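Figure 3 (text version): structure tokens given as input.
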């Protein structure tokens, strides 16, 4: 790679521009990585557009919370040429992120990419797909099986929701996909949803029990509605707040039905959990799933437009970033 390279730089909240950077500008400690691909998550959209306070570092700042790349120089944990993946862990929030052709990243959460997952696939997955996998693992741990009954996925057309639908369906669950984007219902059925329904809205504190489990990628009223619809000892894995961060509910689902609310934080998931999730993904991912969820690959210049569309709820699936385009 040349002495300088392209990066998307936020000069201030909501003010992105592509700049040429030098390796000396990267600073920090960790592994020097040539970035092959990144992805666009809802958190990235908040950072790039300035719609949410995601960036905790100082400006100018390089966003992007996911990357896959090749190590340029060994640093003890990794050898030159290793293909590595990093999702979250402060990338694109506390320290400079993935929207660049080259980056220095701390090795705390850095992993070798499983050999049977192509680099492009890993960023179709990214934080969103990994969050979905963590959610599935949490439901399994709490006894939600394909035999338990229907499982609902909210915010189903987004990144987390798309992967949750596809992964659960492949594991044999009967999946109900809840989304207010009716134009995406065929897409969701193509991912394996047995049924598509409009977004869930709260009603009574306890509704007729319908679902044995749920993956809630929306939050707010969506999560409140899910809690009221779960069967006895059912569980919901919650990871999103696109529908709001305030949860208006009662204690009744918890004390009368023994419902479990399982928080999913992919950002600081321990290394062992990350290894487990990537291992499960190695067995579950296939080309049809990736092809269905992969909306497109964009350049650094195109990131702001995709982020704006994501904030406006006009996207579905997963966008990958190729910083060399």
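Below: residues designed for each position.
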């Amino acid at each position: 790679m040349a002495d300088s390279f392209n990066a998307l730089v936020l000069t201030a909240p909501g003010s992105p521009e592509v700049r040429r950077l030098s390796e000396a500008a990267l600073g920090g400690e960790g592994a020097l990585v040539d970035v092959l691909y990144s992805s666009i998550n809802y958190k990235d959209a908040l950072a790039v557009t300035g719609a949410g306070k995601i960036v905790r570092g100082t400006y100018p700042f390089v966003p992007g919370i996911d990357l896959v790349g090749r190590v340029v120089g060994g640093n003890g944990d990794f050898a030159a040429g290793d293909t590595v993946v990093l999702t979250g862990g402060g990338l694109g929030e506390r320290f400079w992120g993935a929207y660049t052709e080259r980056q220095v990243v701390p090795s705390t959460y850095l992993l070798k990419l499983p050999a049977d997952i192509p680099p492009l696939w890993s960023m179709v997955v990214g934080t969103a797909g990994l969050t979905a996998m963590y959610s599935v693992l949490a439901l399994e741990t709490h006894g939600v099986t394909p035999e338990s009954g229907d499982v609902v996925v909210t915010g189903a057309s987004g990144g987390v929701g798309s992967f949750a639908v596809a992964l659960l369906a492949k594991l044999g669950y009967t999946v109900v996909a809840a989304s207010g984007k009716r134009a995406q219902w065929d897409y969701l059925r193509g991912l394996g949803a047995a049924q598509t329904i409009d977004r869930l809205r709260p009603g009574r504190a306890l509704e007729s029990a319908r679902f044995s489990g749920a993956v809630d990628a929306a939050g707010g009223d969506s999560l409140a509605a899910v809690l009221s619809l779960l069967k006895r000892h059912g569980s919901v894995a919650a990871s999103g707040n696109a529908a709001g961060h305030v949860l208006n509910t009662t204690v009744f689902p918890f004390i009368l039905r023994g419902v479990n609310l399982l928080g999913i934080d992919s950002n600081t998931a321990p290394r062992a959990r990350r290894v487990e999730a990537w291992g499960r993904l190695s067995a579950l991912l296939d080309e049809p799933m990736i092809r269905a969820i992969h909306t497109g690959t964009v350049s650094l210049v195109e990131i702001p437009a995709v982020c704006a569309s994501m904030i406006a709820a006009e996207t579905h699936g997963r966008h990958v970033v190729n910083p060399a385009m």
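The chain is about 30% helix and 25% strand.
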